[in-house]
Each structure stands twice: as C-alpha cells, then as structure tokens.
Amino acid sequence: MSTRKLVLKCNFAGCDKLYSTKYNLKRHLETVHSNLKRFQCRLCGKYLSSKQNLNEHIFTHSSEKPFACLELGCGQIFRQRSQLSNHRKMHRELLALAQQMKKVTEIKLTTLLEYHAEKILSEEDYPKNNDLLILPSITECKMKVYLPSLDFK
C-alpha cells in the first residue's frame, strides 16, 4: 500500500504555498487571500482574518513582547510571531553572508547596519512616514554582535 502524501497548491497569483490537507489550504485561502476578517479586537475595533492574528494583535496594545529570539547571545523580543520570523531570517542571512566570506570572527558593524538598514527601518516598531528617526552614531553604539564560531573545512 502506498503512503503518498496529497499535495495541494494555492492557485492564488504569486503564491507558491503547498498543503497536505484541504482544510489547511482552505484556512490559508481564508486568512491570507480573502478580505473576510471576522475576528474583532475588543480594544480598538480592528478586524483580523484569524484568531491567531487577533491574539498577536492584542500585544500591540501592551508592552508585552512574548516572542523571543533563542539565537545564542541575541535575546531580542517581539510582539508578533511574524516580527520574530523576519528577525530569525536576518540571523540566517548573516550566517550565510559570513559563510560566503569564510571569515566568521570579524565583520564590520557598519557593514551589518548597511546590509540590514532597509529591513530594520521597515519594521512595525519604527516610523513609516516621514518622521525623523535618529540613530546613534557609530561611536555611541553599544550594540554587541555575536557571531557563531564555525570551522570551515
């Protein structure tokens, strides 16, 4: 008897998501590609497309940040899982960049900042309009960058 897995593809233009059940595909279509938003925030009245999105949205009304980066030496915390996911992607990209450079123990902080400036400024917690964002000068920066020690052989 074959244990073939059913693979269902989202047919929405530009989406390449695959699902193993009709239920998961249907849920994806309803929450991602539908304008149907049935979950209302009791604090601000905003409607969201899923219970999960509503639960994470609630954190925007408090100082609570329940999603922590578990990367060794990082510990940054976020209000939403998507913010943590984007942050973790930065760690993966930085590691890939370091592997390409074959030099993991040294990387200029300015290079790191330039490489991620666009992503950092697009985060939800930063101004999105023409508000002035003042960053510390490089001499004042207290940021520590922890890079993994890798042995490239």
TrEMBL record:
Keywords linked to the UniProt accession: Metal-binding, Zinc, Zinc-finger
SMART domains reported for this sequence: ZnF_C2H2
C2H2-type domain span: 8-38, 39-66, 67-91
Protein name: C2H2-type domain-containing protein
Organism from which the protein derives: Stentor coeruleus
Gene3D superfamilies per the UniProt record, alphabetical: Classic Zinc Finger (3.30.160.60)
GO MF annotations, alphabetized: DNA-binding transcription factor activity, RNA polymerase II-specific; RNA polymerase II cis-regulatory region sequence-specific DNA binding; zinc ion binding
UniProt xrefs under SUPFAM superfamilies: beta-beta-alpha zinc fingers (SSF57667)
InterPro entries: Znf_C2H2_sf, Znf_C2H2_type
Family matches, as PROSITE patterns: ZINC_FINGER_C2H2_1, ZINC_FINGER_C2H2_2
